[in-house]
TrEMBL record:
GO terms for biological process: isocitrate metabolic process; lysine biosynthetic process; tricarboxylic acid cycle. PROSITE patterns: IDH_IMDH. Belongs to the isocitrate and isopropylmalate dehydrogenases family. GO terms for cellular component: mitochondrion. Keywords: Magnesium, Metal-binding, NAD, Oxidoreductase. One of its GO terms (molecular function) is isocitrate dehydrogenase (NAD+) activity. InterPro entries: IsoCit/isopropylmalate_DH_CS (IPR019818), IsoPropMal-DH-like_dom (IPR024084). It comes from Thelephora terrestris. This is Isopropylmalate dehydrogenase-like domain-containing protein.
Length: 370
């Protein structure tokens, strides 16, 4: 996956305002492999960072525990010790979590909790077509900017008996504050891209109060007094979420930056990944104003865990995006260029991309090119 130069520039300028200019003698990186193939791809991301050598400050890694498998052993998916240790780091890389589809008493997703604990309010997921021919015009070139702390992911659910049987209820939270700052994030990213277009994804024709607030708030962002006309060049559009999914598959080229509440953004970014060949290519960062955590978009993939065929490229790219948020654009570019070359070459790829190489072989090929 080739990351658009405009996006690379925007990620360098956005979100980590308090971190991007800090000089460091060391860079403290927390590693949370968590579940499944997370334990196979996070070492690849670490190796990519280490391959940069003296081009980065001295790297200090700390391995931290989280995940469903940890929960099954200890009864805790996200230990307090992990949260406290993260607050002492500069950044983090998270692998994947095996959250079960059915309710497990006492369990809650650690990645959702981490986003809230560290106020990582934006999940930024760039998606771009893969091509062995670098001159070919990309068919898909978009960024999903997902609000990371609210919507149904506040996980306020209750189950009770009603007149006609059991009733389950969930609280959906949308606030003006969260919608404003995710709208600003989307505008910042759009500002650095050629098309400068933001599409608000919502369902306010049905959810007129919650999605209505999200839609109206993001629409107002360019006219806010504090932005002082900074976003005047940005075009704001909107799409009902079900229509957006349809058009994403039929005509993805119409989208540039898509900004969405938590649940819609999660679904849309995974759907977009299908258009570029594999979830194993798509990186993301969870960004706040004081911390950043890289996270490959793919899940824990229990069906291939331990087989050494997991694609490490999304994890490696997530490490590069993390570096950009910290202000290390040149170093991130070295990683991104190496991954681009591996994809273009096409001879060392994992099975999800039609190859027959092992995780370690793809990682080694990237490291060689770094």
């Amino acid at each position: 996956m080739l990351i658009h130069n405009g996006l690379r520039a925007s990620l360098r300028r956005t979100a980590m305002r308090g971190l991007a200019t800090q000089a460091r003698s060391t860079l403290k990186v927390a590693l949370l492999p968590a579940d499944g193939i997370g334990r196979e791809v996070i070492p690849a991301a670490r190796a990519a960072l280490e391959a940069l050598g003296s081009d980065l400050p001295k790297l200090e890694f700390v391995d931290l525990l989280a995940g469903f498998e940890l929960f099954t052993r200890t009864g805790t998916a996200l230990p307090e010790e992990t949260i406290n240790a993260l607050r002492e780091q500069d950044c983090a890389l998270f692998g994947a979590v095996s959250s079960p589809s059915k309710r497990v008493a006492g369990y809650s997703s650690p990645i959702v909790a981490l986003r809230k604990e560290l106020d990582l309010y934006a999940n930024i997921r760039p998606v771009l077509s893969v091509s062995k021919d670098p001159t070919q015009k990309p068919y898909v070139d978009l960024v999903v900017v997902r609000e990371n702390t609210e919507c149904l992911y506040v996980k306020q659910e209750v189950s009770e008996m009603g007149e006609h049987g059991r009733v389950a209820k969930a609280t959906r939270l949308i606030t003006e504050r969260a919608s404003t700052r995710i709208g600003k994030m989307a505008c910042e990213i759009a500002l650095q891209r050629p098309r400068k277009h933001v599409t608000i994804i919502h369902k306010s024709n049905v959810l007129s109060v919650t999605d209505g607030l999200f839609r109206e708030t993001v629409r107002r962002v360019p006219s806010l007094p504090e932005v002082n006309g900074k976003y005047d060049s940005i075009q704001i559009g909107e799409q009902i979420v079900d229509s957006a999914v349809y058009r994403l598959f039929r005509e993805p080229q119409i989208f540039d930056v898509m900004v969405a509440p938590n649940l819609y953004g999660d679904i849309l970014s995974d759907a977009a990944a299908a258009l570029v060949g594999s979830l194993g290519l798509v990186p993301s960062v969870n960004a706040g104003d004081t911390f950043v955590m890289g996270e490959p978009v793919h899940g824990s993939a229990p069906d291939i865990a331990g087989k050494s065929i997991a694609n490490p490229l999304a994890s490696i790219r997530s490490a590069a995006l993390m570096l950009r948020h910290l202000g290390y654009g040149k170093q991130a570019g070295r990683i991104e260029s190496a991954v681009d070359e591996v994809i273009r070459d096409g001879t060392v790829l994992t099975p999800d991309l039609g190859g027959n190489s092992k995780t370690e072989e793809v990682t080694a090929e990237v490291l060689k090119r770094i």
